[in-house]
Amino acid sequence: MTIRKLPIPFEDPLRRSQRVLGWIYLLVHVFVLPELLDLYDYFSPDKLSITATQLIYYGVGLVFCLTVMYSFLRGGFDVLADRLPMCLMAMVLGFLIDYALSAAMSLVLALLPELAENPNNEAILDTNAVEGGVRAVVIFLVPIVEEVLFRGVVFGTLRRRSRLLAYAGSAVLFGLYHIWRYALIEPAYFLYALEYVPVSVALAWIYERCGSIWPGIFFHMGINAMSFYVLNLMQNL
Questions:
Q1: Would the pLDDT of 129 be above 60?
Q2: % of the chain exceeding 70 in pLDDT
Q3: Under 8 Å between Cβ of 55 and 137
Q4: Up-side HSE of residue 220: CA atoms within 13 Å toward CB?
Q5: Which ranges constitute the DSSP H helices of the chain?
Q6: Quick one: CA dihedral 163, 176, 94, 26, positive or negative?
Q7: Cβ–Cβ < 8 Å for 90, 209
Q8: Cα separation of 131 and 101, whole Å?
Q9: What is the rounded distance in angstroms from the CA atom of residue 158 to the CA atom of residue 173?
Q10: Going by C-beta distance under 8 Å and a sequence separation of 6 or more, which residues neighbour residue 134?
Q11: Residue 202 pLDDT > 90, yes or no?
């Protein structure tokens, strides 16, 4: 008789203090830090370069992750090492999930009123063309900070209550995070938050499946690198 191996049940590895501090820093990261950087540029005669702004913004997040969330990251690395084949397979399946959901989401967006290009994508292309250092920040720093906050903190917290709520809540917040400042100027841009749902679902599934944040971080790095390539390719057509 063949015994089918059941998935490893999800266990939130964050301590209560880390979850609380994670939610507090998430609010700081989304709402406070951008305003402080804008205020500096407004009042300072020496404006920060785009690369410097991104380094400060995500550098502060990285410091938070390496201090407050160190045990979470360290424990996740041990889990990754113990379950490496399964985590690699989860990353491959995560890519297929992202691809399938992205195709479906493209059909949904095609039925909605036509908008200008996604302003977040346009901003990435503009900054990438001006300062190449932005690419390194987006590929290597952004995934660490965003995965700890949106999968580790948001998904992990909600997953304790409801699996559906965890997937939906983390996807909504992740999408709004990328677009809300543009949407305050043009509310129709809120629709572009839907573009981030597929990858958010894939990343949450990888985290849930593996029980480690690192496969999602590496997957996120690959997706960001691929996005740069695709956006540059589309821009040159």
A1: no
A2: 91
A3: yes
A4: 28
A5: 16-27, 33-43, 50-67, 70-82, 84-111, 119-130, 133-136, 142-146, 156-159, 163-183, 197-210, 214-236
A6: negative
A7: yes
A8: 32
A9: 12
A10: 50, 51, 54, 124, 127, 128
A11: yes
